[in-house]
Design goal:
Distance between the termini: 18 Å
CATH architecture: 3-Layer(aba) Sandwich
Radius of gyration: 18 Å
Structural class: alpha/beta
Oligomer: single chain
Number of domains: 1
Strand order of the largest sheet: 5-2-6-1-11-8
Low-confidence stretches: 1-16
Order of helices and strands: HEHEEHHEHEHEEHHHHEEEE
Shape: globular
Mean pLDDT: 92
Length: about 280
């Protein structure tokens, strides 16, 4: 299995855990409007929430919390709902997701990560990469939610290895969810076709197919080396902010995991909603 699994330091801790590992999710979140409209994506998120064992807490790695010098984790008791966008209907700004935070999970994240020092954050909250999805998955907002930031100054391999250090949380009843879009080029989006969930530029189709093959065949090196995969990847990932969250899930992936792809759609030519989940097979 070509997955850069370089570190085995958590083995002793994992063996002490008795809870069956929770699934792990990478979710293409797309437009914030998906939070308040019913479409195939929001419907799938509702079904996803109903299909999972209810987690004790949720840890989300969102494309919309970027830090420049270090990694941070939300540690407040009541995270605010962040409306980090503009130009949308008032109904979207009115939406609140009043989930509790979890100081206990924040401390567990800080103690689990050794590749870097993680800072406790008391100012961020829940951005739309998190709540636009959870609003459909868990509409009661009755599960504590914590966010982990993306250190934008780090490499793809760093994010992958940090994901590896989060593995043990699966065995503590924590649902780990990464939110972004593997294909995310808003500069090239075909606005006149943005509502067509089957339309993609040739390069977007090519990149999406290559990414899915790499996911299914566990060719993690291809996805880590995204800058050297040709023009299709260059167009698909002009900046890696929406791509990096996916690498955390690949780092968490274990040999016993079954990978299932869903929401495999391109929107407006250059936005990929392709998502996948990992389910531990006993």
């Amino acid at each position: 299995m070509d997955n850069f699994d370089l570190e085995q330091r958590d083995n002793d801790q994992l063996s002490q855990s008795s809870t069956l590992p929770m699934p792990v999710l990478f979710l293409g979140h797309g437009s914030p409007m998906n939070a308040i409209i019913e479409n195939e994506f929001s419907i799938s998120w509702k079904k996803l929430g109903k299909s999972l064992v209810k987690p004790k807490a949720i840890l989300c790695i969102s494309a919309h919390w970027i830090t420049q010098k270090g990694t941070a984790v939300t540690a407040m008791q009541k995270p605010r709902t962040i409306h980090d966008f503009g130009g949308f209907p008032q109904a979207l700004f009115d939406l609140q997701y009043p989930a509790e935070g979890s100081k206990k999970l924040a401390k567990e994240v800080i103690s689990s990560i050794r590749i870097t020092k993680v800072q406790a954050d008391f100012s961020w909250g829940l951005d739309h990469g998190t709540w636009s999805i959870l609003h459909h998955m868990y509409p009661e907002a009755d599960i504590p939610v914590v966010q982990l930031s993306l250190d934008y100054g780090q490499t793809a391999l760093f994010h992958y290895q940090l994901g590896q250090e989060l593995r043990k949380l699966r065995r503590q009843g924590v649902l780990i969810m990464a939110s972004g879009n593997m294909i995310h080029n808003l500069h090239l989006i075909a606005w006149e076709k943005r509502h067509l969930n089957e339309y993609g530029y040739d390069w977007a189709i090519e990149a999406n197919e290559k990414m899915k093959v790499a996911l299914v065949e566990k060719k993690h090196r291809v996805l880590l080396d995204w800058q050297n995969q040709g023009t299709a990847f260059e167009n698909a990932i002009p900046t890696p902010d929406h791509y990096y969250p996916m690498l955390y899930v690949l780092g968490i992936q274990e040999p016993q995991d079954q990978l299932t792809i869903f929401n495999d759609r391109l929107v407006g030519g250059s936005l990929g909603m392709t998502s996948f989940r990992l389910d531990f097979q006993t």
